[in-house]
Design goal:
Layout: E1 7-9, H1 15-26, E2 31-35, E3 48-51, H2 61-64, E4 69-72, H3 82-92, E5 95-99, H4 114-127, E6 132-138, H5 149-154, E7 157-160, E8 166-167, H6 172-184, E9 192-195, E10 201-202, H7 203-214, E11 219-222, H8 225-232, H9 238-250, H10 261-266, H11 273-284
Parallel strand pairs: 1-2, 1-4, 2-3, 4-5, 5-6, 6-9, 7-11
Antiparallel strand pairs: 8-10
Helix pairs in contact: 1-6, 7-11, 8-9
The structure holds NADP nicotinamide-adenine-dinucleotide phosphate.
NADP nicotinamide-adenine-dinucleotide phosphate binds next to helix 1.
Amino acid sequence: MTKQSKVLVVGATGNVGRHVVSMLHAQGAPVRALSRRPESAQLPASVEVVPGDLTRADTLDAALDGIDTVFLVWRRLPVEAAPPVVDAISKYARRLVFLSSMAVRDDLEQQVDPIGQLHASIERSIEASGLEWSFLRPAEFATNTLEWAPQIRAGDVVRGVYGASAMTLIHERDVAAVAVRALCGAEHIGAKHPLTGSEVLTQAEAVSAIGGVIGRPLRWEESSPEEERERLLGWLSPSFAEFILELRAKAVHRTPPVTSTVEEVTGAPARTFREWVVDHAGDFR
Ligand SMILES: NC(=O)c1ccc[n+]([C@@H]2O[C@H](COP(=O)([O-])OP(=O)(O)OC[C@H]3O[C@@H](n4cnc5c(N)ncnc54)[C@H](OP(=O)(O)O)[C@@H]3O)[C@@H](O)[C@H]2O)c1
């Protein structure tokens, strides 16, 4: 990124994008934030926030005008909407950093799971676009554990399935810190960064860790896959609910890898889950 180049942050009001905006802004880099509702974006007053909707690529021209580099987040949107967005970006920008997923498998011709399929398909559009790209491929976000917050606020028990399943939860600030380096450094062009937190924790251990920070004896209580399936079907399709259950079941017997990429890229080790809980303790109280 040259000194004058300007970054458009898509997903600027989200877990990761919000930090990307703040970090770029704090280092004096010109930054513009995209939101479907700029009036409720709650970003620093001096940050330019512009409207745009990723499902309607024709709404992005004004946001992209004068932009050199884009940070792209694709959150629960149809995969078919991505190629027109990548196309629009390539008409204005030179560089794109995409928040992809560790679910993408480079060793497979066809991705095996729906999360991998979605992100691999967007990665392929980006690779074919002529843009200079970097892909961030994080493991599970620590923010996913906020799903337990209503139960924790109501009592000392978190009910769920496969409490022994292992995770390498990553702090959204670490993902954002890597994103900022990738947005600003030519050495990240063509990089696919696998990102994890600093440790492996089971779901049950993560619940205890939250209890340790908020000073309560929290414990995991195992529910049945049938009960969990019923709960997931409240907002997921049957095939996706099945996929999530399988993912958790497999993670009981498989220890996920911990990568050192956060430290290699940012110079600071990935934060621990405990550090994340300290930053979010208010959500669990
Ligand atoms: N959660 C995980 O464990 C995990 C693991 C690996 C990778 N990821 C990746 O990270 C992504 C989520 O990132 P996050 O947690 O930072 O997201 P998030 O907190 O859920 O925020 C989503 C952002 O997307 C924007 N957005 C949604 N629909 C939009 C649309 N139609 N047009 C324009 N903007 C739109 C929202 O902006 P407005 O509402 O302001 O418009 C918001 O800023 C996932 O989708 C996945 O690709 C997640």
